[in-house]
Specification:
six-stranded antiparallel beta barrel, globular, about 35% helix, alpha+beta
């Protein structure tokens, strides 16, 4: 007679096969990166299709907004516009004063880094990893390690790039570390993720460190990845226990990591010395006014700053020991330096 229940593969054989496959995958993990990137690029259209229902719902909610809601929003925007106009007037005065001081010192004007607005397409469903997927990839010039911020502060950095999408690791992830400093006393520390969206921690902080509840943490610029001065978090708790060598310090990220929608991709500034991988060209700025700066010629504030160099050399040209050819060469060299500064592309960073 044939047995009713046929005996299958033994559990020992299944366990041995699983162990062998695990070892093979661990050994070939680094060789699978091109396959992962290709698979991510192939799945990008599916991600775009998956985001269509949410986009339709957002469009519907915006289209059917009530008149009262629009009136309230308009009133609030007018109030914010008045506040921003008053602040802009004060900033304009400070900018002019700063330009005069820079012209007096003969130092070049600071150049802003290029930025690009990106939209979140997907949020990680794995509770042990915190990352989001953006709708810009290598085609837009995004590179691995690029810093990402929102309107309040630092969000994270790009860890994976495909042709049309990119994956951002949030600063709350347990594998993320960020060099920061305290704005009150310039103490430098390292902020690490804890796995909680509303909490990060500062490890290995000595008990004698001057750190208080409410201190603002900003990026320190160390590591040549995040630009200096971007707000990161605010210290919420400082615990010092007897018998422990270090204090336990926790902080709350300023960025709302649980409800981010639009983020800002930042490229390094020209004077940062950061080289982009594979010499990726930096995309054009979102604002055309920034692209028109190189064509302004001597009307550029940077050109005006550099133009003060020959004026400083003019009194020296009247000295008895200075000949006429040398005096004429000094302004020409200064003008050449000014023209070179104004024709330098502000967006190309390699």
């Amino acid at each position: 007679m044939k047995p009713i229940f046929v005996r299958g593969i033994s559990n020992q054989f299944r366990l041995t096969l699983a162990i062998i496959l695990s070892v093979i995958l661990l050994a070939a993990n680094h060789r699978l990166d091109p396959a992962r990137e290709s698979l991510s690029s192939a799945l990008s259209p599916i991600q775009y299709l998956a985001s269509v229902p949410s986009a339709i719902l957002d469009w519907s909610s915006e289209s059917f907004a009530t008149r009262n809601m629009l009136a309230l929003q308009n009133k609030e925007l007018l109030r914010q516009q008045l506040l921003m106009s008053e602040r802009l007037q004060r900033f304009e005065h400070l900018r002019q004063e700063n330009e005069r001081l820079r012209a007096l010192l003969g130092s070049p004007a600071y150049q802003d880094s290029r930025k690009m607005v990106a939209e979140v397409m997907e949020v990680a469903s794995d509770p042990s990893h915190h990352y989001v997927v953006l709708n810009h990839g290598s085609r837009s010039g995004v590179f691995v390690g690029q810093p990402v911020v929102d309107a309040q502060g630092v969000v994270g950095q790009v860890v994976q790039v495909s042709e049309m999408t990119s994956r951002v690791l949030l600063l709350s992830d347990v594998s993320h570390g960020l060099p920061v400093r305290i704005t009150r006393n310039d103490v430098r520390l390292v902020a690490n993720g804890t796995g909680e969206l509303d909490e990060i921690e500062l490890r290995h902080v000595a008990k004698s460190t001057d750190i208080r509840v409410g201190d603002l943490l900003v990026t320190s610029g160390l590591g040549n990845r995040f630009p200096e001065g971007y707000p990161v978090a605010r210290v919420m708790e400082v615990l010092t226990e007897d018998g422990q060598s270090y204090a336990r310090v926790t902080a709350q990220p300023l960025a709302a990591l649980d409800r981010i929608r639009y983020l800002l991709l930042i490229w390094p500034s020209p004077d940062s010395g950061v080289t982009l991988p594979n010499q990726i060209p930096v995309p054009a700025a979102d604002h055309p006014a920034e692209e028109a700066k190189p064509d302004a010629g001597n009307a550029n504030p940077q050109g005006a700053v550099n133009a003060t160099v020959p004026s400083n050399a003019a009194p020296n040209s009247t000295a008895p020991n200075t000949t006429a050819p040398n005096a004429a060469a000094a302004p020409s060299n200064a003008n050449g330096a000014s023209n070179a500064a104004t024709t330098q592309p502000p967006a190309e960073v390699h």
